[in-house]
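Researcher: First entry.
Model:
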Amino acid sequence: MARPAALEELPLFAARPRARTADPATSHEAAASITDGARAGQYRLILALLAEHPAGLTNDQIDLALSWRTGTASRRVAELVGAGVERCTETRPTSTGRGAHVHRLASRRAGAA
Protein backbone atom coordinates (compact mmCIF):
# COMPACT_ATOMS: atom_id res chain seq x y z
CA MET A 1 0.00 0.00 0.00
CA ALA A 2 1.48 3.33 -1.05
CA ARG A 3 1.74 5.76 1.84
CA PRO A 4 2.89 9.36 2.06
CA ALA A 5 6.44 9.83 3.30
CA ALA A 6 5.16 11.58 6.41
CA LEU A 7 1.77 12.63 7.69
CA GLU A 8 3.09 16.15 8.04
CA GLU A 9 3.31 16.32 4.22
CA LEU A 10 -0.43 15.83 3.81
CA PRO A 11 -2.57 18.86 2.94
CA LEU A 12 -4.58 18.39 6.14
CA PHE A 13 -1.55 19.57 8.14
CA ALA A 14 -1.51 22.93 6.36
CA ALA A 15 -2.42 25.89 8.54
CA ARG A 16 -6.14 26.52 8.15
CA PRO A 17 -9.15 27.09 10.34
CA ARG A 18 -10.39 23.93 12.09
CA ALA A 19 -13.93 25.23 12.56
CA ARG A 20 -16.27 26.56 9.90
CA THR A 21 -16.98 30.28 9.84
CA ALA A 22 -20.66 29.69 10.65
CA ASP A 23 -19.89 27.37 13.60
CA PRO A 24 -20.72 28.64 17.09
CA ALA A 25 -18.03 30.10 19.34
CA THR A 26 -17.83 26.83 21.30
CA SER A 27 -16.77 25.00 18.13
CA HIS A 28 -14.02 27.55 17.51
CA GLU A 29 -12.87 27.20 21.14
CA ALA A 30 -12.79 23.41 20.83
CA ALA A 31 -10.88 23.59 17.54
CA ALA A 32 -8.34 25.97 19.06
CA SER A 33 -7.86 23.73 22.12
CA ILE A 34 -6.47 20.73 20.23
CA THR A 35 -2.78 21.01 19.41
CA ASP A 36 -1.31 20.02 16.07
CA GLY A 37 0.55 17.21 17.84
CA ALA A 38 -2.64 15.84 19.37
CA ARG A 39 -4.42 16.09 16.03
CA ALA A 40 -1.55 14.27 14.28
CA GLY A 41 -1.72 11.55 16.94
CA GLN A 42 -5.43 11.11 16.29
CA TYR A 43 -4.79 10.86 12.54
CA ARG A 44 -2.16 8.18 13.13
CA LEU A 45 -4.46 6.16 15.40
CA ILE A 46 -7.31 6.30 12.89
CA LEU A 47 -5.07 5.35 9.95
CA ALA A 48 -3.50 2.45 11.88
CA LEU A 49 -6.96 1.21 12.88
CA LEU A 50 -8.24 1.39 9.29
CA ALA A 51 -5.15 -0.49 8.11
CA GLU A 52 -6.10 -3.28 10.54
CA HIS A 53 -9.71 -3.30 9.26
CA PRO A 54 -9.66 -3.42 5.45
CA ALA A 55 -13.46 -3.94 5.37
CA GLY A 56 -13.71 -0.42 6.79
CA LEU A 57 -15.19 1.16 9.90
CA THR A 58 -17.84 3.76 10.70
CA ASN A 59 -17.05 6.79 12.86
CA ASP A 60 -18.97 5.10 15.67
CA GLN A 61 -16.80 1.98 15.37
CA ILE A 62 -13.62 4.09 15.33
CA ASP A 63 -14.72 5.94 18.49
CA LEU A 64 -15.53 2.64 20.21
CA ALA A 65 -12.28 0.91 19.17
CA LEU A 66 -10.17 3.85 20.36
CA SER A 67 -12.24 4.45 23.54
CA TRP A 68 -13.04 7.98 22.39
CA ARG A 69 -16.17 9.96 23.23
CA THR A 70 -18.88 9.60 20.59
CA GLY A 71 -18.21 12.04 17.79
CA THR A 72 -14.47 12.45 18.36
CA ALA A 73 -13.52 10.50 15.24
CA SER A 74 -15.99 12.37 13.07
CA ARG A 75 -13.96 15.57 12.71
CA ARG A 76 -10.62 13.85 12.12
CA VAL A 77 -12.19 11.40 9.65
CA ALA A 78 -13.74 14.29 7.70
CA GLU A 79 -10.30 15.91 7.46
CA LEU A 80 -8.70 12.64 6.31
CA VAL A 81 -11.41 12.14 3.68
CA GLY A 82 -10.95 15.74 2.52
CA ALA A 83 -7.21 15.15 2.16
CA GLY A 84 -7.82 12.00 0.12
CA VAL A 85 -6.18 9.71 2.68
CA GLU A 86 -9.34 7.73 3.25
CA ARG A 87 -12.63 7.37 1.47
CA CYS A 88 -16.27 6.59 2.18
CA THR A 89 -17.22 3.36 0.46
CA GLU A 90 -20.75 2.43 1.52
CA THR A 91 -23.10 2.67 4.48
CA ARG A 92 -23.58 0.26 7.34
CA PRO A 93 -26.10 0.32 10.21
CA THR A 94 -24.84 1.68 13.52
CA SER A 95 -25.84 0.48 16.99
CA THR A 96 -28.90 2.73 16.73
CA GLY A 97 -29.91 1.19 13.40
CA ARG A 98 -29.19 4.32 11.37
CA GLY A 99 -26.92 4.12 8.35
CA ALA A 100 -23.38 5.47 8.63
CA HIS A 101 -20.59 5.91 6.11
CA VAL A 102 -17.94 3.20 6.12
CA HIS A 103 -14.37 4.52 5.83
CA ARG A 104 -11.42 2.74 4.26
CA LEU A 105 -7.89 3.78 3.42
CA ALA A 106 -7.98 5.48 0.02
CA SER A 107 -5.33 3.22 -1.47
CA ARG A 108 -7.54 0.15 -1.12
CA ARG A 109 -9.67 -0.77 -4.11
CA ALA A 110 -13.42 -0.77 -3.84
CA GLY A 111 -14.59 -4.27 -3.05
CA ALA A 112 -11.27 -5.34 -1.51
CA ALA A 113 -11.86 -6.78 1.90
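Researcher: Second entry.
Model:
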Amino acid sequence: MSKKEIEAKWDVDMEKAAVYFEELAKSMRTGTIYIRSSEEIVVLKPSKIIEIKVEACSKKHSEKIEIKMSWEKIQENGQDLTISPDKN
Protein backbone atom coordinates (compact mmCIF):
# COMPACT_ATOMS: atom_id res chain seq x y z
CA MET A 1 0.00 0.00 0.00
CA SER A 2 1.35 3.44 -0.87
CA LYS A 3 1.85 6.16 1.69
CA LYS A 4 -0.75 8.94 1.74
CA GLU A 5 0.09 12.12 3.59
CA ILE A 6 -1.37 15.58 4.11
CA GLU A 7 0.50 18.31 5.90
CA ALA A 8 -1.00 21.75 6.49
CA LYS A 9 -0.18 24.81 8.55
CA TRP A 10 -2.20 28.01 8.84
CA ASP A 11 -3.46 30.56 11.37
CA VAL A 12 -7.01 30.26 12.75
CA ASP A 13 -8.80 31.85 15.68
CA MET A 14 -9.07 29.88 18.92
CA GLU A 15 -12.72 28.93 18.33
CA LYS A 16 -11.94 27.43 14.90
CA ALA A 17 -9.00 25.50 16.40
CA ALA A 18 -11.35 24.09 19.07
CA VAL A 19 -13.82 23.02 16.36
CA TYR A 20 -11.04 21.07 14.58
CA PHE A 21 -10.28 19.17 17.80
CA GLU A 22 -13.98 18.53 18.46
CA GLU A 23 -14.37 17.11 14.94
CA LEU A 24 -11.28 14.97 15.44
CA ALA A 25 -12.75 13.57 18.67
CA LYS A 26 -16.10 12.83 16.96
CA SER A 27 -14.31 11.11 14.08
CA MET A 28 -12.22 8.99 16.44
CA ARG A 29 -15.36 7.84 18.24
CA THR A 30 -16.90 6.68 14.93
CA GLY A 31 -13.72 4.73 14.12
CA THR A 32 -12.80 6.60 10.92
CA ILE A 33 -11.04 9.94 10.45
CA TYR A 34 -11.21 11.64 7.05
CA ILE A 35 -8.58 14.35 6.51
CA ARG A 36 -9.18 16.41 3.35
CA SER A 37 -7.15 19.20 1.80
CA SER A 38 -8.00 20.38 -1.72
CA GLU A 39 -8.04 17.22 -3.84
CA GLU A 40 -6.16 15.09 -1.32
CA ILE A 41 -7.76 12.77 1.25
CA VAL A 42 -6.27 10.51 3.91
CA VAL A 43 -8.50 8.00 5.67
CA LEU A 44 -7.37 6.85 9.11
CA LYS A 45 -8.89 4.08 11.22
CA PRO A 46 -7.63 4.39 14.81
CA SER A 47 -7.17 1.20 16.77
CA LYS A 48 -8.41 0.70 20.34
CA ILE A 49 -4.95 1.52 21.77
CA ILE A 50 -3.45 4.89 20.82
CA GLU A 51 -0.03 6.22 21.78
CA ILE A 52 -0.22 9.92 22.66
CA LYS A 53 2.76 12.24 22.93
CA VAL A 54 2.31 15.79 24.26
CA GLU A 55 4.94 18.52 24.23
CA ALA A 56 4.21 21.95 25.70
CA CYS A 57 6.50 24.97 25.76
CA SER A 58 6.09 28.48 27.16
CA LYS A 59 8.65 31.12 26.23
CA LYS A 60 8.76 34.84 26.90
CA HIS A 61 6.81 35.79 23.74
CA SER A 62 5.24 32.55 22.53
CA GLU A 63 3.65 29.31 23.63
CA LYS A 64 2.96 26.05 21.86
CA ILE A 65 1.59 22.59 22.34
CA GLU A 66 2.25 19.66 20.05
CA ILE A 67 0.06 16.58 20.21
CA LYS A 68 1.02 13.46 18.32
CA MET A 69 -1.10 10.32 18.18
CA SER A 70 -0.13 7.03 16.57
CA TRP A 71 -1.42 3.47 16.45
CA GLU A 72 -0.87 0.17 14.74
CA LYS A 73 -3.10 -0.58 11.77
CA ILE A 74 -5.85 -3.10 12.38
CA GLN A 75 -6.06 -6.17 10.16
CA GLU A 76 -9.53 -5.96 8.69
CA ASN A 77 -11.67 -9.11 8.62
CA GLY A 78 -8.62 -11.37 8.96
CA GLN A 79 -7.83 -10.88 5.26
CA ASP A 80 -4.14 -11.57 5.82
CA LEU A 81 -4.76 -14.45 8.23
CA THR A 82 -4.96 -18.07 7.19
CA ILE A 83 -5.21 -21.08 9.46
CA SER A 84 -4.30 -24.37 7.85
CA PRO A 85 -2.67 -27.72 8.69
CA ASP A 86 -0.15 -27.19 5.86
CA LYS A 87 1.86 -24.29 4.48
CA ASN A 88 -0.35 -23.72 1.42
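Model: Note on the second entry: The first strand starts at residue 33 and ends at 37.
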